Structures are given as C-alpha cells and as structure tokens.
Amino acid sequence: MKASVGDVVLPGDYCEEISAVGEKAKVIIGPGLQKEIDHVYVTKAGILKKRNPNTYWVDNYQKRYIPARGENVIGVVVQKAGDIFRVDVGSSITAALSYLSFEGATKKNKPDVQIGDVVYAKMLVASKDMEPELVCVDSHGKKGRMGVLSDGFVFKCSLNLIRKILNPNCPLLESLKNEWPFELAAGMNGRIWIKANTMRETIALGNAILGAEYLSDEEIKSMCTNIATILAGHVS
Amino acid sequence: MAGLTRKKLQLPKSVLEMKFMKRTKERIEKELENIHGHEGLYSNIITNEMRTATGNYIPEASFIYCENLIDGRLSFKGMNPEIERLMELETAKEEESGEMQKDVSDEVLAKNMNKFKSRKRPSLTPSKYNVTAKKKK
C-alpha cells in the first residue's frame, strides 16, 4: 500500500514521495526503510517520519537492540577471550571489545576490566552477518565519555524511551538537571546507567526516566517538579 | 575497461615476437583475455539496475543521525566533573559555530563607518591617485 509521511505504516508498504525526491536529490533512508529496485519499502511497523533535509525513517516500538554503527551502547562484560572481551549488549550475539581499544592501553599495559563490569562503548562494526565490534576510544585515541562505568545502577527500557530522553527537545533532563547532582549514561541498546549521591536520589531519577515513556512534554515537566518536591522533603 | 588498456603503453609486436619476450607476451595475452572475459563472466549477475543505479539513496542504520540525538553520557551539578567539562566544550563549540559574539553591534559599526567615511582622510603617502581625486572634487 502507498504510504506518505506521518502515516502509520506496515512492512511491505512503499512510499512514492521518497522515490520522487530520490530522483533528483540525495535521500537518507533511516531504520525501517529499504531501497528496492522499484520502490522504497517499509520494513518495520511504525510511523513514517521525515526531517529536513530529506531524511526519512520509521519510528517504531522496539525492545530488541539491533547493532548500528556509531551508536553508543551499555554492555556487560561476560567473557575474557584472549585479546578481546565479549560484551553482552542485548543483541542477538555478544559484541567483541578489544583490550587495545581503551585509552592508553598497550599489549603490556592491559586495561583493568573484569567480568561483570559495565562498559559504555561505541559500535565500530555492526554488520548483518558479523559479530559487532565495540571500542572505548574515539578516533583520536581519547576515551572521551566512554569507558567502564563504576558504581551506579543499570536498568533496561524500550529503545523508544532512550530516543525520547536523548531528543534535544525532551524536557526531562532539562527539568531534572538543576534539582540534584546525578550522572547518567543512556545506551542506544535500551539500557540506562544512573548514579546519584544517595539511594533515594537514584530511585527518584530512575522512576522519573521510566515514568516519562508515555507522557507528553507538559506532563513530564509536572512529574519532574513533583518528584523534586517529594525528594526535597516538602511532601512525604 | 578496453579503453583503459588501449591507453596503456603497449610493446610493439616485433619486440614481442622476440625469443626472450616469450613470457611477457604470454602475460599480456592473459591480461587481455581476462578483461574481455569479465563481461561475459558476470553478465548474469550484473543487472540493468546495477548499471543505471544512482547513488542518491544513503542507507543509515542508526536513529542518532535521523533524530539528531544528543550524546547519552551526561552529568549534572558536579557529579562527574570530567564529563561536565566535555559537555561544556561541546556546547561552547555549538555556540561558536552559530553566531560570532560581537564586541561592537551592527548599528554602532554602521554609524561609525559613516562618520569615518565622511571624514577627510589625510593620506599617509600622497600619491598621484590621491591628488587627482582631490582635484576632481
């Protein structure tokens, strides 16, 4: 069936608008869209979205992570195998993380990573038919924001929630950031690591994030002020 | 492909016929055969679409670029100074790439430039051009 931007689409639908634009200009087709010989087909059930300039994708509900190159994810080290760590990122197979892809690591100076550690890493290789590969350094060899996450608390959520809170227009982090000190790492694989000074604050932060999934922007703002007042002890 | 090989320097036939050039001759013949063989070999795999396909469609597997998502590692109110420093650097970079900070606003600059232009400028090195310009006035 023909579909246009903003529609609810199902796998097998096709969008002629994208093909028309693709005749003249460059088009970026994101997740959930696939170029076939005659049309651009939808491969996921969701809402067809567009962003200028000429970027199309399908916004769908999903909990299973499919590795994509360049995404930052949170993984748990499950095995040390020779010169790589195997990291569970929630995809169909574990990802490989070389011990040399840490800042300042050499063959003699191995990074201190144990089985069970939580790492925040970037997908370097994410191919359909191969084991995904992670790195904990950027192209300059600096660790940047990646590396082992110590302490804190990890919980899982849908992939949509991650995208929702990392959207620049989302008011959640904007309204929480001035309330109490906290640290957060959101992996595109549907895992969030949070760390605050006390357990009460950590729980409040976790609840605020999980509660935001099905709320509108206005509701998120009021929920955040609610949580902040409860935490401050004004309401018991 | 054939065009490329034609452009390549080729040894004259008379030279290739010589006895010591036997191996080179064989190699060149083999190369030519390979080039001609390619089109026939892959004709069932190379489709018309492959020949006419345009590079206008860029597949992108990640939502990050589609939805313009921010980096997921954040720290607030001094929980992790290292991360906060990186966040500050990033926001500073974004602001810089936007509009440059101005010491003098556009209006003040325009006013002053008008004053500056209307004022007769004493030339430091009097030249032929300056003199002629004054005469015209």
Automatic annotation (TrEMBL), chain A:
SUPFAM superfamilies: Eukaryotic type KH-domain (KH-domain type I), Nucleic acid-binding proteins, Ribosomal L27 protein-like
Family: Belongs to the RRP40 family.
GO biological process terms, semicolon-separated: CUT catabolic process; exonucleolytic trimming to generate mature 3'-end of 5.8S rRNA from tricistronic rRNA transcript (SSU-rRNA, 5.8S rRNA, LSU-rRNA); nuclear polyadenylation-dependent rRNA catabolic process; poly(A)-dependent snoRNA 3'-end processing; regulation of gene expression; TRAMP-dependent tRNA surveillance pathway; U4 snRNA 3'-end processing
Signal peptide (residue range): none
K Homology domain boundaries: 152-198
Gene3D superfamilies registered for this protein in UniProt: 2.40.50.100, K Homology domain, type 1, Nucleic acid-binding proteins
Keywords: Cytoplasm, Exosome, Nucleus, RNA-binding, rRNA processing
Gene Ontology molecular function: RNA binding
Subcellular localization, as worded in the UniProt entry: Cytoplasm; Nucleus, Nucleolus
Keyword Chloroplast: no
Location, primary (coarse class): cytoplasm
Domain annotation Exosome complex exonuclease Rrp40 N-terminal: ranges: 27-64
Name of this protein: Exosome complex component RRP40
GO CC terms, sorted: cytoplasmic exosome (RNase complex); nuclear exosome (RNase complex); nucleolus
Database matches in InterPro entries: Exosome_RNA_bind1/RRP40/RRP4, KH_dom_type_1, KH_dom_type_1_sf, NA-bd_OB-fold, RRP40_KH-I, Rrp40_N_euk, Rrp40_S1
Automatic annotation (TrEMBL), chain B:
InterPro entries xref list: MPP6
GO BP field: maturation of 5.8S rRNA
A family per Pfam: MPP6
Residue numbers spanned by region Disordered: 92-137
Biased composition annotated in UniProt, kind: Basic and acidic residues: 92-109
Protein name: M-phase phosphoprotein 6
Species assigned in the record: Parnassius mnemosyne
